[in-house]
């Protein structure tokens, strides 16, 4: 009986094993998973994907021995897809930095224009309330002065000294005939002489020069900050359209899609392998690291110069006082001034009443300073310092807290791309040729020089467009240095932490993706962005549909006004406790 059963049992197991082997063979030689990934990623028409692997396919990039689920058309489509995906990822990161800069450029400019509008109204109210005889004729010159200041701080090639000189030249005839000699009537032809000789007669004492000096210092820093933010936006626009070389596209295709040709659609590249590919592709982008860090350092100092000591607010709020002191100086020295004018312009005499013509300068045409957010001027019931002081300081703190996170942007961009969804830390990974436990190749650093030893991507020459951007940024840094000679001498802001070195093109041998810039900073980029965490991103994690950043101080706490209540309660409780002890 056992002899009968044994042959049956042996025959059953043999049949079962042969059936399972047949099923495994069919599954192993199916390209179904490859076709699914091809469709989900919208790489190309599904008809290009074979049903089963081919053995006589001539591929240019994804070469390997054995059957392949790829064809030449698929390989070409993979290169198009990887180019599109890589540039989209680069733009998604640069989008955040671009709108950080452009959004704060608008915020700073709106604040500048509001301060100018307030100061203009402040001076106009002085003329209307205190010097009403000349206010109607002087207001057009006030408008012309602040229009010139507005254009200057926006970056136009104007001279503050020339604008202030024109203002006082046109103010002098009005002060002379309306305040110093009110019975003279209109200036008439003598007004031309008074305007032409104002600087020689010097009726306003040192006050015009003092005003010009203060405004030149304060507005010069504001103008430099406006130009710097505009330059940063242009740099980001240029890097958004970076081109990828053929060698780069081959490396990216091999890293991202050649594993699909073997049916391995879920395997991810090794970290060190990805870094080599990305650093080779973005070698010219990494060359912007040094000039960019100097640019960010200049931004730090410019914002401190503009807002650190309230210099811009104080300078603009002081225009009213300087003009008032200048008019009082002319009135105080009225007799001496009249005698000097009679010698230079002839004896005083009543002439036919004619109006003093407005500012003849053709370059200023805007009648008043306007801003997209500035309200119409209303004389406040509280001192202007209490209303305006601190606006720029709040904006400065917020801006610096953001921009510091992007100081190493161009150096760590390859790692940010690799730390996204491209690479996962697993027991096995894709090395470009096979599935391995770890990448054995040498991981190079950033920059063109380091790519000479890159085993994955050959970099033959720098990108000419990015080389031009680098030269332009270096030239701008030097122009800012020449414009404000003291810039660059201040220590890095300790409370915000920069902590990096200048040289950044060394080699790197570890698998973890150590930074080639010598900073060691990449280990802190837990969300793939510079210096942030998953809960503290500069602008957001969805760059596709976000608005420019709202100007708001993050983590700054409440203003001093709200801090006074707890302090008062604490003091009150202390007094009550003392009284209770005495009782």
TrEMBL record:
Keyword terms: Cell membrane, Glycoprotein, GPI-anchor, Heparan sulfate, Lipoprotein, Membrane, Proteoglycan, Signal, Transmembrane, Transmembrane helix
Topology class, membrane: Lipid-anchor; GPI-anchor
Signal among keywords: yes
Localization per Swiss-Prot or TrEMBL: Cell membrane
UniProt main location, coarse: membrane
Stretch list, region Disordered: 350-375, 487-548
Gene Ontology cellular component terms for the protein in this record: cell surface; extracellular region; plasma membrane; side of membrane
Database matches in Pfam families: Glypican
GO biological process: cell migration; positive regulation of canonical Wnt signaling pathway; regulation of protein localization to membrane
Transmembrane parts of this sequence: 12-30
Function description: Cell surface proteoglycan.
PANTHER family registered for this protein in UniProt: GLYPICAN, GLYPICAN-5
Family: Belongs to the glypican family.
Name this protein carries in UniProt: Glypican 5c
Species for this entry: Salmo trutta (Brown trout)
Taxonomic placement: Eukaryota, Metazoa, Chordata, Craniata, Vertebrata
């Amino acid at each position: 009986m056992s002899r009968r059963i044994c042959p049956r049992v042996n025959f059953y197991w043999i049949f079962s094993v042969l059936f399972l082997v047949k099923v495994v063979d069919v599954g192993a030689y199916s390209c179904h998973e490859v076709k699914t990934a091809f469709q989900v990623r919208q790489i190309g028409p599904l008809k290009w994907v074979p049903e089963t692997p081919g053995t006589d396919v001539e591929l240019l990039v994804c070469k390997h021995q054995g059957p392949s689920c790829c064809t030449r058309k698929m390989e070409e489509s993979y290169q198009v897809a990887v180019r599109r995906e890589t540039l989209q990822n680069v733009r998604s990161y640069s989008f955040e930095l671009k709108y950080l800069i452009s959004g704060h450029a608008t915020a700073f400019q709106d604040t500048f224009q509001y301060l100018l509008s307030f100061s203009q109204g402040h001076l106009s109210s002085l003329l209307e309330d205190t010097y009403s005889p000349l206010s109607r004729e002087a207001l057009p010159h006030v408008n012309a002065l602040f229009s010139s200041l507005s254009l200057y701080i926006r970056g136009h090639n104007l001279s503050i000294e020339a604008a202030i000189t024109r203002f006082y030249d046109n103010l002098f005839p009005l002060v002379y005939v309306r305040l110093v000699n009110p019975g003279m009537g209109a200036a008439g032809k003598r007004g031309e002489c008074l305007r032409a000789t104002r600087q020689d007669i010097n009726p306003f004492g040192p006050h015009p020069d003092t005003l010009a000096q203060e405004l030149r210092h304060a507005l010069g820093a504001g103008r430099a900050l406006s130009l710097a933010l505009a330059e940063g936006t242009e740099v980001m626009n240029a890097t958004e359209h970076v081109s990828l070389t053929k060698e780069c596209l081959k490396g990216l295709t091999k890293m991202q899609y050649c594993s699909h040709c073997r049916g391995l659609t879920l395997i991810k590249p090794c970290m060190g392998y990805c870094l080599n590919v990305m650093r080779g592709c973005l070698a010219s982008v990494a060359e912007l690291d040094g000039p960019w860090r100097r640019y960010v350092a200049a931004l730090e100092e410019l914002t401190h110069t503009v807002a650190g000591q309230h210099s811009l607010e104080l300078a603009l709020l002081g225009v009213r006082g300087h003009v008032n002191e200048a008019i009082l100086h002319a009135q105080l020295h009225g007799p001496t001034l009249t005698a000097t004018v009679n010698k230079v312009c002839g004896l005083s005499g009543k002439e036919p009443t004619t109006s003093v013509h407005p500012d003849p300068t053709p370059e200023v045409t805007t009648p008043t300073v306007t801003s997209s957010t500035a309200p119409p001027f209303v004389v406040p019931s509280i001192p202007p310092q209490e209303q305006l002081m601190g606006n720029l300081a709040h904006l400065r703190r917020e801006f610096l807290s953001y921009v510091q996170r992007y100081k190493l942007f161009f150096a760590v961009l390859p790692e940010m791309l690799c730390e996204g969804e491209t690479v996962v830390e697993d027991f096995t990974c894709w090395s470009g040729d096979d599935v391995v436990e770890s990448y054995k190749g040498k991981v190079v650093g950033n920059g063109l020089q380091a790519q000479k030893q890159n085993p994955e991507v050959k970099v033959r020459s720098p990108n000419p467009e990015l080389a031009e951007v680098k030269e332009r940024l270096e030239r701008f840094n030097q122009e800012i240095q020449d414009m404000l000679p003291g810039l660059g001498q201040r220590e890095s802001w300790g409370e915000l932490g920069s902590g990096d070195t200048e040289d950044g093109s060394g080699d790197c041998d570890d698998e973890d993706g150590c930074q080639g810039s010598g900073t060691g900073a990449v280990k802190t980029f837990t969300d793939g962005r510079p210096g942030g965490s998953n809960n503290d991103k500069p602008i957001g994690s969805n760059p596709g549909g976000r608005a420019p950043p709202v100007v708001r101080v993050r983590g700054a706490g409440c203003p001093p006004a709200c801090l006074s209540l707890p302090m008062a309660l604490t003091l009150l409780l202390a007094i009550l406790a003392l009284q209770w002890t005495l009782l």
